[in-house]
Design a protein that fits this description.
heterotrimer, A mainly alpha, B mainly alpha, C alpha/beta, A: mainly alpha, MetI-like fold, globular, B: mainly alpha
Chain lengths: 297, 272, 345
Amino acid sequence: MTTAIIPDPEAIRPELAQPGSQLPVPPEGLRASRNSGFTSLRVGVTALWLSVIVLLPLAAIAWQAAGGGWQAFWLAVTSRAAVESLQVTLGISVVVTVLDVLFGLATAWVLVRDNFVGKGLIDAVIDLPFALPTIVTSLVMLALYGKNSPVHIHLQHTPPGVGMALAFVTLPLVVRAVQPVLLEIDRDVEEAAASLGANGLKVFTTIVLPSLAPSLLTGAGLAFSRCVAEFGSVVTIGGAVPGKTEVSSQWIRSLIENDDRTGAAAMSIVLLSISFTVLVLLRIVGGRAAKREEKAA
Amino acid sequence: MTSSFWARHLIRYVTLAYIGVMLVVPVSIILWRTFKPGFGQFWSWITTPAAIAALDLSLVVVAVVVPLNVVFGVLTSLLLARGRFRGRAALQSIVDLPFAVSPIIVGVALILLWGSAGALGFVENDLGIKIIFGLPGLILVSIFVTLPFVVREVQPVLQEVGTEQEQAAATLGSGPWQTFWRITLPTIRWGLIYGTVLTTARTLGEFGGVIMVSSNLPGESQTLTLLVNDRYARGAEYGAYALSTLLMGVAVVFLIVKTTLLVRRKRAKAAV
Amino acid sequence: MFNNLRIALRWRHVVALAVAVGVVAACGAGPSDVVGGGGLVNANTKITLVAYSVPEPGWSKVIPAFNASEEGKGVQVITSYAASADQSRGVVEGKPADVVNFSVEPDITRLVKAGKVSADWDKEAGKGNPFGSVVTLVVRKGNPKNISDWDDLLRPGVEVITPSPLSSGSAKWNLLAPYAAKSRGGADSQAGIDFINKLVHEHVKLRPGSGRIATSVFSEGSGDVLISYENEAIAAERQGKPVEHLIPPQTFKIENPVAVVSTSAHLDAANAFKNFQYTAAAQTLWAQAGFRPIDPAVTANFRDQYPVPIKLWTIDDLGGWSTADSQLFDKSTGSITKVYMQATG
């Protein structure tokens, strides 16, 4: 999604490259005070915007869940349907995330290190799941794996069906997280290791993989979060079979439509907590891996 | 690292097979099902009055959401990339938050906040402004889910480029607005365009959140995605596929724009 | 300079595209989703009909007839179909509605309590129910599992599809039928509850949100038997789906209420629309669409299409909706609700 741009300093400031040019030093005091006033205003406006758009709605969930008391919260999140939906959601999400990591790494590898006809096209097409509305994904999956499947694979109302939809939607996440890092990797170390007699696989596991670990973990975190949160793409192919394909987002929707606002709020908090925890954990582990890489480099 | 001939080809073909099965085949099936009865059928199903009304509504939402997110996105990026203030880390996390929130939860949150029985229910009950079941609800959902896009594209650019050019301009007498317009904006141009395109595509495709907060009345409060769902639910399968193909067309346009931008970015980098 | 020129040209393309889209978007927007336009030209009033999930085949015939009639000229009717209780709660929450057509009376009562429908909505002819149906069993074409009565649903290995009573009106009718049959009209309510218990715990695996979704799920291959409205079964058969329906010897009479929302801004049009349903023309159209009419003359005409079951229980046999709903379906104390809660936790 985002490729980090590392610009050439000389390229942006050509005037510095020319000999003899000298930039005047601005008077610090005046600039500093004007900046800080400006900054406060900007902070205020931005904080207000983010509060109204992001924080207030999330606070409303907390307010509703708290309003029911601890008893109601506990009942709502330990009901059989709630627990089953979490099992389904987490179970399928873990499998799909592992799949994403494997194939995401392979895809990034093929796009960066390999060369073949149509590579550019494939690179462009990878982002399709980002741009496709989830309900369209759902219909696409149903057309291919539903009752009228042209390849006679019938996955409607089964966990693999949900898995396929989630794998489609999260396909680009790991690829785009790993790709820019793979591009930037210094191949000298690998070549040195190869010349010392290490075979391809050993070079990969001992040199390349550790340097990709942080981005792989980031990608995995994004993919897992997306799987857990997904709704639109699993709606038609999943069929919301309790205990098999009903994911937590569908259960939350049932709750709010049946006017169980406290239950919906409670389940939302559980789902959000899971996503946040995984993201934070992966960021920490990724950060540690990155630090280790820096020390080793 | 040179891998053996077999390893390289194995990885290549397994990966291509995966992408083929996961991406190419499903999309082709929809295209086949849509255009098999002919282009005429396709055209009539995407120009029914309800479809045109849905297009209208989706475009209106985009027209409100994108400028807001661009303006506040650039503002937030400037702040996060350049500002030094307390709570910067918190602001950064809040910007990243929408990525982890399910669209259903966004809908639930907005209902609990702005609904007639919600925390700010007085807005609807006393001031008569309908947020849930009204246009503002659709807009709030879309702003929430697309909030990070512009920031995540613009912020890294600002962080890499540094402030020297702006400082130079300031000393040469340029006011803050002028500096922004003539120096900062061109620098972030490509990131900003890409972020805008992402925001537009995502807004057009939003489904889980809007299905919660919309009254879903054909001709009035159905976005394109809601109409696709409606058509499928009532058994008008072909109509659902036809509209899906239209939305897929938008997605393809997005991919083309993205690739073009990438190429231009590379060219801009190489040219300087 | 070249760059500026190219950028200017590109912007022109974008603007041209935007204008073109705008022009297309401005013409022809409307609520009709039928190919070939359809819908009303020169509509001067617009009313919204909020209905339960399955009456679309009927309304799509009756609304054009209404527009062709004197009272309905120029009145555009926008329709919304979803699970009955969800729609009812939506209208209470603020979903725009001028006329409501729900599956079960309690969903109207909710609106009466919220002050949106007047308390005497059912005092006129027809008691507020212009059409109805009966509870039927829908099976795969050829009836491979040989289903003929309620007891067959409890045979081992038979999976039954019926919606969730929390959101669906159809679900309530579906459960009232075997309950009434087994409890002999409420005389032995424990026997009725025991049957429902066994049915829900051992044979119902899914929880589709509405009658229409239940039909979809069944058509997509899940389950052996679908309990549904006769009109929904007829609609599925007419769509060419490989299903057939049968009426069990004892079943339940379905009555679907239509009421005007008293807070409507177009009361005249709404009332005209509601009253139109009781005319012979509308009743015939309802009968043709698969619904059981209430007009005796029309009913006589369609006698062959709508056989009378051996025993047809009605809600009055169970003491009326207020009694039955609170006894069986109350959110916390209803006996059938409790069965479902135990099954789903």
